[in-house]
Protein: diguanylate cyclase
Organism: Marilutibacter aestuarii
Amino acid sequence: MTCKAINAARAMMLLGILALAMPARAGIEDALQRADALRTSDPQAFAAALSELDALEAQATEAQTLRIRLLRTYQKALTGNYEIAIKDAIALHQEGKDPTLKFRAALLAANTAAVTREFSLGLRYLEIALAMQDQVPDANDRHLGFLVAAILYTEYGQHSLSLQYAEQLLALETSPRIRCPARLKKIEAEWKLGSGAGNELATSQAIADCIAQQDAIATGFLRGQLARQWAAAGREGEAVELLESHLKEVEATGYPRLVGEIHSLLAEYRQATGDPSAAERHARAVLALGVKDAYSLPLVTAHRVLYETALERGDLGAALGAYRQYAEADKARLDEVKAREFAFQLSRHELQQRDHAIDLLSKQNEVLTLEQEVAKKSSQVDRLVILLLLMLAAMIGFWAYRTRRMQGQLRALAQTDGLTGLSNRRHFRERADVMLSRCTASGQEMALVLLDLDNFKHINDRHGHAAGDWLLGQVARACRAACREGDVCGRLGGEEFAIMSCGADLAAAQRIAQSCREQLARIDTAAIGHDRPITASFGCTTSLRSGPTFERMFAHADAAMYRAKADGRDTILTHVEPAPVTVLHRGQTSA
């Protein structure tokens, strides 16, 4: 074969290779776009599209390989593998060169970090993504930044900011696929802010919009929101019918947060409509999802439903176990709410510090420039430089003072119940442990009084949550008035309060409870339109009766308090072992 023939053969072979490679590359690009479109609309089809990409990955370019990795990371987040998803998203953001891929990876890291309560990490990557938003060429990709900001600020409880970003996004000309979750975030934020409680038409229109976009996850959350609106209007039966009729669609998404939320709503509404067995079944379905979302409201609701259904059927052992789990889950959720508020405030504070640091560096650069000129100027210029340095030192001292003051405010925020001003559950426990150790060391007896408001849910339902919040503040004042000097008073959560008193025997505990009971009866509820006196059920014990450990004292006082509630409310019960509990009815004292 001649040289010319060999070259011709090589050219033909090269053309054949290119002819085979070009359709493959085109196939990968089509598969990438198809998989990205199916991400939130059809989880099973999305998984199948990823399997198709697995078969084509060997022929992908480096950039396409990174996009495939990003889609796999989305799948990990959607199926609850949050920690791995965060790690992979951060790695993609660091390794990628394409602005769009880096932007979307940062948003995914921020979004998933909020789910795992890594609040500072989530805010940091949200700021990173928003800072590079202008580098993203496609408008729909850029709009994802506003959407994730709306989602994240919902997670952080900053509903005004969430509403602001959602409305900003809906004002833009964006794709219907992005408008669907944006409308979800707007409706959720309005509900949380109390301005969208009756806007059922907007919710129904948003559901229809998301169904048209085949966004099963957003559709599921919107149906849950519509069910809340119906239940708030007393239409629990319709809410149950709506959620039950679409439960299989929700479970088909495989998204743990959505599945847990819908089952918890069904558990709550089934119980409200008098179907405890169905309520218990849905509550256990929430628990069966595992601990991937251990601080969620659905988990708290599930434990509460199991506790109340066990109590209704008279299974006190199961009720006590379920109550303990409910109390632990509720405490964890309340601590998590404090933690995310702390993280948000800390992030804002760090951002301010960074801006101030930049200002200080700029001023320092100005000072250095002036110092170069000082050598050529007179003593008058020297005095000017000294004055500038003193101003800089004063500024640094001022911001140091502001920083210390902010830290003190954040510490107080972490220890205080924002509604009543009393110690929160965690801080009350810490102070009670210190007091118990001090009393035990000095040979003094210590008393614990627990109280739970009677019919508080009825007051909330009849007069509104604002009235309930006002009443809790009045109850806190009544508890303080009943305390002796040196006593510790706290709100343990919901309508439950506690008083710890050093040097108090059982008679003193009863006097504290009776004093608190009298203070509650004096509350003037005319301001909220309530025409009945405020009462509570009390449980008392002492370290002499229960032993010098907080856990036993709390368990005994808690059991006495719930027996008081079961005995007809407005009652004071004391823990007595082994003799029966002594009942104190209105105006009575124990023997």
